[in-house]
Amino acid sequence: MSRYTSVTPDDLREMLATIGVGSIDELFDAVVPEGVRLGREIDLPDGMTEQDVYDHLRDLAALNTSTEDEITFLGAGMYDTYVPALIDMLVTRSEFLTPYTPYQPEISQGGLQVMFEYQTAISELTALPVSNASVYEGPSALAAAGYLARLANRKGRFVISRAVHPHSRETLRTMARGYGVEVVEVPLRDGVTDPDAWAAAIDDDTSAVFFQNPNFLGAVEDAEALAGAAKNSPAVVVGAYDPLTLGILVPPGECGVDVAVGEGQQLGNRLDFGGPSFGFFAATEAYLRRMPGRIAGETRDVDGRRGFVLTLQTREQHIRREKATSNICTSQALNALAGVVYLTWLGRQGIVEIGDLLLQRTAYAREKLAAVDGVTLLHEQPAIREFAVRVDAPVQRVIEYCQDLGVNPGYALGRDYEEFSDGLLVALTEQRTREQIDLLAQVLGEAVAAERGARAEVTA
Amino acid sequence: MADGTYPEDLLYHPEHDWARIEGDTATLGITWFAQDALGEVVFFDPPEVGSTVTKDEAYAEVESVKAVSDVIAPLSGEIIEVNTALADAPETINSDPYGEGWLVKIRLSDPAEQDDLLDAGAYTAQLS
Amino acid sequence: MTVATETPLQREPVQTIFEKGRPGRRAFVCPDPGVPVRPRDELLPKAFQRREPPRLPEVSEPEIVRHYVRLSKRNFDLDSGFYPLGSCTMKHNPRLHERVTALPGHARLHPLQDPRRAQGALELMWNLERALSEIAGLPHVSLQPSAGSHGELAGVLLTRAYHEDRGETRTKVLTPDTAHGTNPATVTMAGLEVVKVATNEDGGVDLDDLRAKADTDVACLMLTNPNTLGLFDRNIEEITAIVHGVGGVLYYDGANLNAVMGHTRPGDMGFDIVHFNLHKTFTQPHGGGGPGSGPIAVSDRIEPYLMTPRVVRRDGDNGSGAPVFDLDFDKPKSIGRLRGFHGNYGTFVRSYAYIRSLGAAGLKDASEVAVLNANYLLAKLRAEGVDDLLPLAYGKLCGHEFVLSGAPMKRELGIKTLDLAKRLLDHGFHPPTVYFPLLVDEALLIEPTETETKETLDAFADAIVEILREAREDPEIARNAPYTTPVRRLDEAGAAKRPVIRQEL
């Protein structure tokens, strides 16, 4: 017997007798050929008690600097948004945490209705009529949109803005190489997608175009213009959006976007060092039967009761197999539950208020940082919750200096954009107060002064 | 429609499709066996009028709740009409597979291809 | 079914959260901006502003809690009952894992945090990689893929990269006709072509068919062993020799790893790439449909192409001698990324806690009891005389799961596997997997897992016997089941014909 199993010597005796063998080894002998038997113990430490496992995991946690240990302005795709306590309670309930995918709908109405509500919420946010029940996360959602386009129009090129999240661009490249579509990147101008280069890149072999709004540098793009530039091409227009800004930003469905995707972490999910979270995927009616992933649909039972089922399942891997719209089996149901509960908790007024709050605090932070000696704005585009600055000192050293004082100032853009090697991406959430922003400005100023001095020493 | 009927006046393709020849045109559909195997049909996405179909190749798909099936063309030709009534009532393919459940009409490009098809007797024989 | 016999859950009217509440109600309290407030039009051009807010619900917090807690009661779940879903490994989800995952040092750690300030996370990932490597018998691991099918995609893309780097274009992927649905879909996404290999009468790969199809155009063979019939292929060494002989790569679908831990390892069988399902073998809760995780382990010849970033360990240079963990992005032959950040870290924490709890002996025991429980349930059903109507599809003994065929039951009693499954719901059990694998007529795929007691297995067998007995007297009962669930059989055809996938507002 080991942890979580229950076979006593009496159980074993009775069970072996029923089976008609003398030992468990006999079962394996009958089944696993001699030549591939391991013949030794696996080389792993011995099992530990629950208390010792807890201590070990706690010790590992203590080596990490979390958002509880520093004031963080680090974003770049995932954000330190507050997760209300009721979500913790709901996502650890047995009935939501432990069931499988709802293949027996009669006993899965809870989960299926949650999916239906989630789909409704995403449709509302994006103003697109068709939403699935979630995909893994943001970057792979964008890549899945690419696959949808490829199956729909069989064209040979993807056009993607350089202002889309680096992980999304990379994921798209990796996947597109698989099914043979070329990926063309359009450069930036003044912090947004260069509109002339964008239009010039689109032709009648373009399968899909991709932009992000707000983009990776925090700038609000002219989505309608970007979508419009693809109007006379076969291209599917894909927009990657930040869901928490959709209370105040014009939604993709009203800008001519065909498919909207995005990262859902900031809707009620923890940072968790990058996952699990969920990705959302919404589209126009025309793509209903090309949607990847699960979709919950409304129906009636034999007695006329309202109920929900997984529908349009013929598109999925387990029926169409090689013709499937994707290969998704497991998705992110529990994280999507957290997402819809969070959106419900924000409510119709809250989604607008939080957007306005981010807008105001971001503007304030921008102003404060631009006033710091050695810090200038990288672009002056409208921004809602994230913005980029240039610092006149080695960025990594500046970040380290600030972190040593308990403030994480943001993301070093030079890690992904060699043209912005002096760039710092600063994110706001509703948890970053005025006092904390003032502290950031102060600490950043100190850091730049100190590190600018250090660099000057080196070159002297 | 009675169980397992296969009208004598039609020609059959082993992949469970039928053709009703009318001069130089033909009406095409799927057999009773096919609709029974699929279960209740929920969606039929017709090809475009004017497009070409090729004998032995798939020209459309029929979807039920649990499965999707290629529809194989028993003969080659150009699509001159598609059954648009199926958009609102795809289950007609189940209830009347040889009548109101027809899928497309084509103008034959090679009438001699008929010789490769089976009659009702030969088709039902190869079903068992 | 009459109104008088309805259960309370059946009687309860179904309303989505969008149909509840009233204008003005709210839960969220917005913090005061605290900064000088500027006109919105100054900060965001009017053309970029949303005109009408999204029509999210307007409800109070107690309403939200009540709504979702009541919804939860309309779900069956693993904590509440037996869930013998074949191929899903529904084993107990320990709550210790939820406690450690919630520690702020893990839960509130940003993925882009400086690696020097995330040493605990990186050490955890490193340790998990080494443990998975040892379990699989392959040296290099990536934790990045988000689910089993994502790991499969990685495997096929890696195979392509490996061959291309050697100047070879190979287009075919061999997969047995018993393969899980995700395999062929994955191959198509990776731009390759599926070629099916026949199964012999023992349920294993047909060696003659394999030899005929294995040529230098074969990129890889994708296999699950034990396979989806629950059977371990005794010719596994021959199979790997044939494929390696033509220069092909061998991919192991780890969905059934629960049958063999500590007894045999895919790497030792000759496989080059193995994917794990942390949400199957390693207790990540299924969550009603995710999240999961599909890490992969690979051999030396595949290692250069693994996704970036890689977790690396270096000797500490700070004098204390403690190792330092880091992320390495400098892998020129890597296929790149398949998702953002590092993968589903929350699932790593749980799986790691599980592996540290059980240790080597515990993992081996888990597989042994999984195989014991499956064979016991099979033998018990036989002892109850069930195998005339529900015979075992292949062989005599099984691995950690087994497939029965409902075809004789359908012929003799007039009820299908579907009806049996629906009637099981009234007995308080989740049914086994039905109609998979496709190779078996009226298939019933049963996997009890090691965390179930003998009493539960006996009760399940009793329920099957009871349903068959009842069907002999009156098959209509099962055909119209279930009766006691929150809803009864649903019109799935109607849902597909006229899809309604969001609440009308």
Provide a descriptive summary of the structure in words:
The complex is a heterotrimer of chains A (460), B (128) and C (505). By secondary structure, chain A is of the alpha/beta class. Chain A has 14 helices and 17 strands. In chain A, the strands form five sheets. A seven-stranded mixed beta sheet of chain A has the order 2-10-9-8-7-3-4, sandwiched between helices. The longest helix of chain A has 38 residues, at 333-370. Chain A is globular. The termini of chain A are far apart. Chain B has one domain: RNA polymerase II/Efflux pump adaptor protein, barrel-sandwich hybrid domain (OB fold (Dihydrolipoamide Acetyltransferase, E2P)), CATH 2.40.50.100. Helices cover 13% and strands 35% of the residues of chain B. Chain B is built from three helices and nine strands; from the N terminus they run E-E-E-H-E-E-E-E-E-H-E-H. Chain B has a six-stranded antiparallel beta sheet with strand order 1-2-3-9-8-5. A three-stranded antiparallel beta sheet of chain B has the order 4-6-7. The radius of gyration of chain B is 13 Å and the shape is globular. Chain C is an alpha/beta fold. Chain C folds into three domains: 3-72, no CATH class; 96-355, Aspartate Aminotransferase, domain 2; 366-479, Aspartate Aminotransferase, domain 1, CATH 3.90.1150.10. Chain C has helices at residues 8-11, 40-43, 61-72, 96-101, 104-107, 119-136, 148-165, 182-189, 207-213, 236-245, 266-269, 345-383, 407-413, 417-426, 454-473, 476-479, 492-497; strands spanning 140-142, 172-176, 193-197, 218-223, 249-253, 273-275, 296-298, 310-314, 324-328, 402-405, 433-434, 443-446. In chain C, the strands form three sheets. In chain C, strands 1-7-6-5-4-2-3 form a seven-stranded mixed beta sheet, with helices on both faces. In chain C, helix 12 packs across helix 15 (454-473). The longest helix of chain C has 39 residues, at 345-383. Chains in contact: A-B, A-C, B-C. At the A-C interface, helix 1, helix 2, helix 3, helix 4 and helix 5 of A face helix 3, helix 4, helix 5, helix 6 and helix 7 of C.
